[in-house]
Amino acid sequence: MDYQWYPGHMTKSIRQLQDDIKLIDLLIEIVDARIPYSSRNPDVEKMCRGKARIVILNKADLADEAENRRWMNYFEGQNANPILADARKKATLKRLLPLVNKACQDKIERNKRRGIINRPMRAMVAGIPNVGKSTFINSFSGQSAAKTGNKPGVTKGKQWIRLNKQIELLDTPGLLWPKFENQEVGLHIALIGSMKDENLIPEELATELIRRLKDHYASMLADRYGIDEAKDPAHILEEVAIRRGCLKAGAEPDLVKAARILIDEFRSAKIGRVTLESAEDLVP
Ligand SMILES: Nc1nc2c(ncn2[C@@H]2O[C@H](COP(=O)(O)OP(=O)(O)OP(=O)(O)O)[C@@H](O)[C@H]2O)c(=O)[nH]1
Ligand SMILES: [Mg+2]
């Protein structure tokens, strides 16, 4: 099947994003730690020239810890100011504040030279669907933040959340469209749940997931479902159905039901912490 992006209503959000980026000093790009490559937006780089950047590897609690470390190294090598995060946790935010200062250092110093002192940095969160943007803003603003309200002039109609003396956050996140350079990227986005499930074929997604787990996470499927991993993905799915009692009339294995279980248990990391893309593949 074709792993397509939400067609249609992206043009509006692109324009919105371009307008919002003009107002900010810092872009906080949230990516999914299980697919840091595919969940990054291809055009953000261009749109954010001259702005400070932070890359949040979110849902790191669901991703493979060894891969988390590799991705941190990779992004550090790109001076992208990365941080591993669970956006639901307050501890994440504590680690984030010093990073904001580091990322914005140039801007803060430029301001100082121009006599502008104590002006908070204005930040915005952006990311593809379901990556944790709202969760992040909620954790952040739940902390101690007060809405600073509409400000006239440059920020007509925008709500800013005052986090502390140093940072204000735009309270609506930017929705990014991911890259769709090939089917692999689309598949990964579908697997983590950032594509509308009603457009997907569960058995096909599950079979692709099984293929990847067999290759990169040997014995994970066997441990969880008690199946024989040597079999091919389609047979493994059938066995998962049988093991989990997913049967249709006439004791036929219900592959759709089994596929949904497998995908859910992958997405919630019940099956184990899995990263689908290795940073090593990007390093020459
Ligand atoms: N395990 C885990 N779950 C998270 C994390 N961050 C967010 N979630 C969950 O991921 C789901 C999506 O989070 P949202 O904050 O709604 O994502 P969003 O980017 O605002 O999504 P859209 O508004 O649809 O674009 C929710 O069920 C969150 O509880 C995280 O770091 N770890
Ligand atoms: Mg949201």
Low-confidence stretches: 149-155
Q: CATH-wise, what's the superfamily of the largest domain? A: P-loop containing nucleotide triphosphate hydrolases
Ions, cofactors and other bound molecules: guanosine-5'-triphosphate, magnesium ion
Task: Please state the CA-atom Rg, rounded to the nearest Å.
Answer: 21 Å
The SSE string, one letter per element, is: HEHEHEHHEHEEEEHHHHH
N- to C-terminal distance: 31 Å
How large is the count of helical segments?
Answer: 11
The general outline is elongated
Describe this structure in words.
It is a single chain. This protein folds into two domains: 10-175, Rossmann fold (3-Layer(aba) Sandwich), CATH 3.40.50; 201-281, Conserved Hypothetical Protein Ylqf, Chain: A, domain 2, CATH 1.10.1580. 42% of the residues lie in helices and 14% in strands. It has helices at 10-23, 44-47, 65-77, 90-103, 105-113, 133-143, 183-192, 202-216, 220-225, 233-243, 255-267, and strands at residues 26-32, 52-58, 82-84, 121-127, 146-150, 159-162, 167-170, 174-175. Helix 3 links the parallel strand 2 and strand 3 (82-84). The structure holds guanosine-5'-triphosphate and magnesium ion. Residues 58-59, 61-62, 85-88, 127, 129-135, 175 line the site of guanosine-5'-triphosphate (GTP).
